[in-house]
Write a structure and sequence with these properties.
Length: 436
């Protein structure tokens, strides 16, 4: 672990970090530039390891940082040639295969990216793609057992803004030569962008869909400000190091996978291991979890609470897990305190359960990595982020802030909060007075 990080034991350490103006903390407010810098740290080091289905005997597909960034550049150049510019959405309907990384970061470079939950029903897919005004969709080609292609064909006529559909030949999918992403990007320059681009903190980098409190999909606008801030903040509070190798086992259409398992490690020059195209849905991945940890020297025990519950009941059987940091983050759902205690006892890892949402560009709080995690709590606020509970009035304002132990609405304010939804009519229920 890098020694330059400040210990985080309590709120006092968070407040100490805030004595430096935030602008002095951020190397760039452009997400693509942060990823370029991460790739330049050690260009020949492995950046991405891909296993289709956690098969220990199958040779993995690997990319160095230089090779992977070259794919990002080629993909961005392709999107630009297809008419994608600032404000235009490149949407992906693809499992966690290498090409989704090309499209995601290439989309951020040329326009903005929108990773869509390919498991949704067609009626929800068309709502999201229409709201995003998708100009390009990258989709898995016809594949047995995965109905992405059939769904897209069924809704194609309902997407008037969609100019191009590109295809990916992974997971057993048919290669459609005229639209195959790999074939097309191979024809593009890899050493430079062929277009001028400039992005500021308030420009939109991505649309990520969120269920919010209603469960209905809605697109959150993720600004470069939020992503750049979170690259710094999460690196600082977790003491992320360049030599780390992390699992990318969360869905890439979820903010935790989109940011925490993709953009953050790439910006840090770390190594990402994709253990399965279908993440923790792969039974083989969970069966081989500890062997994969040993083989790739994974830095963090990884999984949502349901996955962690499975792992704690199926501990290592002689595998070497000494690569684990003594703490690891989790989220997406509450982590039962008893499960957290068992994990610490069996694996020597303190689970840090975060509180977050798409609307906060992932997490807004996290227990202190060097302090008492207080199992059952979601910790303390991130630096430069405010979190309070309040009693709201009937007009969308704040009647008063809550006393200790009083239940109220949780309010968040800071550089991590989104500027709003793509459908601005939904913003009235998102914001309250004072910028919260």
């Amino acid at each position: 672990m890098a020694s330059s990080f400040t210990p985080i034991r309590s709120l006092a350490d968070i407040e100490a970090l805030e004595r430096v103006p935030l602008a002095e903390r951020i190397a760039s407010w452009d997400t693509f530039e942060l990823i370029r810098r991460g790739a330049a740290l050690e260009p020949d080091k492995t950046a991405l390891v891909y296993l289709a289905d956690a098969d220990l005997d199958a040779p993995p597909v690997t990319f160095t940082h230089a090779e992977l960034f070259a794919r990002f550049v080629q993909t961005a150049n392709l999107f630009h040639r297809l008419g994608v510019g600032p404000g235009d959405a490149v949407c992906t309907l693809v499992p966690a295969v290498p090409q989704i990384f090309f499209a995601q970061i290439g989309g951020i470079a040329a326009g903005l990216s929108c990773c869509v939950n390919w498991m949704l029903e067609p009626k929800h897919l068309v709502e999201i793609l229409r709201a995003a005004r998708a100009k390009v969709v990258v989709a898995l080609g016809p594949a047995e057992g995965v109905e992405i292609w059939q769904k897209l064909r069924a809704i194609r006529g309902d997407l008037p803004d969609l100019a191009h559909v590109l295809t990916v030949a992974e997971c057993g999918a048919e290669r459609l030569s005229e639209t195959d992403l790999d074939t097309l990007i191979a024809q593009e320059p890899a050493d430079r962008l062929v277009f001028e681009r400039a992005r500021g903190p308030d420009d939109i980098a991505a649309y990520v869909h969120s269920g919010g409190t209603t469960g209905a999909p809605k697109l959150a606008k993720i600004a470069h400000r939020g992503l750049a801030f979170k690259c710094w903040a999460n690196t600082e509070i977790m003491a992320h190091a360049r030599d780390e190798t992390v699992f990318c086992d969360y869905p890439l259409f979820h903010i935790a996978g989109y940011f925490g398992r993709t953009i953050l490690p790439l910006a840090n020059g770390s190594t990402i291991v994709v253990p399965s195209a279908f993440g923790a849905r792969s039974k083989r991945f969970l069966a081989n979890y500890w062997k994969l940890v040993e083989r790739y020297r994974i830095a963090y025990l990884s999984g949502v609470p349901t996955t962690l519950s499975v792992l704690v009941n199926n501990p290592p059987n002689g595998e070497d897990i000494s690569s684990f940091r003594p703490y690891a983050p989790t989220g997406s759902a509450p982590l039962p305190a008893e499960i957290a205690r068992q994990i610490e006892k069996k694996f020597g890892v303190r689970m840090i359960a975060t509180f977050g949402a798409t609307e906060f560009t992932q997490n807004a709080t996290m227990p202190p990595r060097d302090g008492d995690p207080r199992f059952g709590s979601t910790g303390i606020r991130l630096p430069y982020v405010e979190v309070k509970t309040a009693i709201l009035d009937g007009a969308g304002g704040i009647a008063r802030f809550c006393a200790t132990d009083e239940i109220g609405a949780i309010l968040v304010k800071g550089p991590n909060t989104i500027p709003g939804y793509v459908n601005a009519a939904l913003d009235a229920a998102l914001f309250v007075a004072g910028g919260w």
